[in-house]
Amino acid sequence: MTVADLAGVAPAxxxxxxxxxxGLRQDIIRGVYPVGSKLRQGEIARQFGVSTTPVRxxxxxxxxxxxxxxxxxxxxxxxxxxAADLSQHYEIRxxxxxxxxxKAAERFLPEWAPSLEAYLDELQTQPxxxxxxxxxxxxxxxxxxxxxxQQLVDLVKSLRYASSAYMYIYRLAPGYPNEHxxxxxxxxxxxxxxxxxxxxxxxTRDHLGRTVDRVTTWLESHARQARTE
Length: 229
Fold this sequence. Notes:
9 helices, Four Helix Bundle (Hemerythrin (Met), subunit A), Arc Repressor Mutant, subunit A
């Protein structure tokens, strides 16, 4: 995102800060700023063609999302959670996403299924990690939006953003379980099509539970490797 992307927005610094935060969020997810790298306010301000004030506000927003840590001595840097952090994060996600998918299944209409199936078809053979992360996010969020519970959807989206950077990194790791994830996603969709909220919630809990187990194992391995280097 550049200054051109900010054209036409209101001059309020908070609005600009939100745009800068979104641009930085996407850069972190894509790996432009690797985990642990320092985020320098002056460089970011020049990148987006803004002053440092909205950059500071953007970094606070991203800290709230869990993508950035602000340290009085070290400054701002891209955050990698511990396995314990991730487990606690997913406890909340599992509860909220199971609720959202159950509510969506209660009112699910047949015409909602084709676009979701298209995401899964592309995701199954998509080699690009960035596109895979986007498709995965779209699949889940589009289902949750069918719940009719916008506050719930907004909470879930915020939590999913907070795990998007390290999920992207995990997607690049050897042994990424694409086939297992495809079957888990299709189980969730089938339950929604059948308008079975209990099964949809159970499928989502199983899917997220397996995901956190896989990623936790990967994070622990990543931490051990980092200590030996």
